[in-house]
Amino acid sequence: MLLRYLSHQTMFSSKRPTIPNHALSHIGLYWRADTQFASAMSQRGIPSDTWDAAFNHMAAVILGMEVLSSLSSIALSSCDAVRPEQLEDLDFHRLSVYSQQLSPAFKDLLPKLEEMLWEFESWVNDARGRTQPAFLPGSKFLQSLIKEIQRQIPTLQNANFFVYLDEYENLDLRQQQIVNTWLKHSQTPLIFNLAMKRNAFDTLATTGPEALSDIHDFRTHDLEQDFLEDNFQIIAAEILLLRFALAGAPNLPIEPDVLRDPEKIELRRTPEYKRNAIAAAKGLFPGMTNKELANTIFVDTALSNQLRRRIERALSRRSGGTVQDFFRPAVPEASVITPALLSRQSTTPEEVRIEMEKLERGENNKFTGVTNWIHNNLVGSLLQLYEPQSRACPFYAGFDAFCDLSRGNIRHFLELCYKSLNRNTTSSDSRIPPEEQAEAARQASAALLREVKSFGRKGNQLHYFVFRLGTLFMLAHQRPSLSESEQSHFTILRGTSDLSDEDHEFLREALKWSVLYEHKGTKKKSEQEPETIEYVLNPIYAPFFHISYRKKRRLEITSDDVICLIRGKYSEVRELLRRYSGKWGLEHEELNPTLFPLVESEIL
After folding, report:
1. Could you tell me which residues come within 8 angstroms of residue 532 by beta carbon, excluding any fewer than 6 positions away?
2. Tens of pLDDT along 470-515?
3. Which segments of 513-585 does DSSP mark as H helices, in order?
4. How far is 459 from 142, CA to CA, in rounded Å?
5. Which of 49, 102, 293, 321 has a 20 to 30 A CA-CA distance from 113?
């Protein structure tokens, strides 16, 4: 979104009423690396230096087209620096030294470059069967093109062209080195900028002896960390409300023209504006309070029966009390968590019953007091009750929940909203019922999980890993006592085997594609204990596995088990899951009967 915004199509859009001449100091050229085509430019019996020249040629043609297109954008905009007739007078005959195919007239040069691109693509697809085209010299050609433009249009003398190369990680290693060389030697009027995923800057090498140097040659800007983390809710709300506004929805606290006007940014930063926009988004996608979530158990026969069975099963292992002592609709949140409390050796049925009575009388108690049993156990208990019913828990519903599930990814957020709107058959207005949102979240989660297979060269392995790890967290959420509730991240303990370089590379790949997120450990037993790294499963996959998307408690896994999850055989993974099931005291009837077949179908 940012790169598209900075490109000439947006900055010099005909829809902008006023564009100052100083905008010419930053003319954006957008180029998205094509994974499939980039990978085709290697080997196949063609020397590597030929492929290097081919890549430079492709950049010259594509970005040359962008430079010419940017002139058209400027001439057709409200900026008065360039007039359409000036473009008609441009003469590029001097560029013929690079290739006799290049037309001297502006109106012919862009179509000719497009034809050269088509010719080049045809050659790449059949490099040994077709005649190799004459190659243009990459950034040198672009500099000459810009120089000719500036020589003939005085108002562009101080113009600067900024190339925004998107999805840099899709290029192969040699192509990245070529791009790094452009970056190292960037200077006005042609500046290169790279956009990539986290941990995707695999090499700082150039085609020459010098490598890139941080700060000296480039600066890193982490958009998620530096800009989105603290502002994602308002950004998501604005994008959502803009979609509704453009569809004709009435009474929204935003105006499309305001969102598109850079002069109105300060207005949009005011607390009142943010409050109103987020409130409107929550009105369209309402969530449920903890009490409302707990009440869903008592208004649904299947869920209330499930709660009774769990209380009964917990009491069968202990003496003291009846189901009715703990099944109390008057205190729904406390009732929902009683199966977990009754399954713990640290709490007796009598203690739980006494604390429930104190809660009902409004006295100080362990459910809501300092011990705060409800706060620590409600979500985990709700997920346990919903899981056997094969339906999504409303815990995944609401604008706040959608923002947490998306974790800064606008595309994921919009997918959650889109599927919710598609499912909305029960509400006649724009408000989406939480039940529909929760089911939509599960659908979106499943769809985005399938997408993992396309994540780079290790996509299939990443897909297996997510299924294995998600299933392990799923088991952790089913332990009767919920002594460690809402485990959705892990840390690695030293086992009998250390992770190999290949395993560390795999974890970096998981971080690059946001399958995992990395955090510094928050809990240390002593100052002498080394700092640990915590790996968090992307929250968007939580609804599929019916686990919590919140970062609450970590699961400590040995390096041996991590190796098994990364590259173990199916029989080894199955044994690992059964071992943890026994460790956590899961009985057969407490396990989802489709759990292991689910894993088997995905990882065999």
Report:
1. 491, 492, 520, 521, 524
2. 999 999 999 999 988 899 999 999 989 999 999 999 999 999 999 9
3. 542-545, 559-567, 570-583
4. 36
5. 49
Kindly give the interhelix angle for 399-406 and 410-423, rounded to the nearest 10 degrees: 140
C-alpha separations of 7 from 28, 32, 110, 218, 569 in Å = 4, 12, 18, 20, 47
Burial profile 57-69: b = 16 or more Cβ within 10 angstroms, e = fewer: bbbbbbbbbbbbe
Residues 571-600 have pLDDT tens digits of 999 999 999 999 998 865 445 544 444 554
Task: Say if CB 356 and CB 330 are below 8 A apart.
Answer: no
For strands 190-194 and 533-537, give the pairing. unpaired
Strands (E), 496-579: 516-520, 533-537, 553-558
Q: CA–CA separation, 435 vs 424, rounded Å?
A: 10
Give me 490's structure tokens.
């892990």
Q: Is 363 left (phi over 0), alpha (psi -120 to 50) or beta?
A: beta
Residues 6+ apart with CB under 8 A from 500: 563
Residue 486: burial class (beta carbons within 10 Å; 0-12, 13-18, 19+): buried
Q: What is the pTM of this model?
A: 0.86
Confidence grade of residue 251 (pLDDT, cut at 50, 70, 90): confident
Q: Is the dihedral of CA 468, 470, 473, 474 positive or negative?
A: negative
Sign of CA dihedral 122, 126, 130, 136: positive
Q: What token pair was written down for 308?
A: 């009774």
How far lies 380's CA from each of 296, 320, 339, in Å?
15, 24, 11
Which among 292, 313, 310 is positioned nearest to 302, based on CA atoms? 310
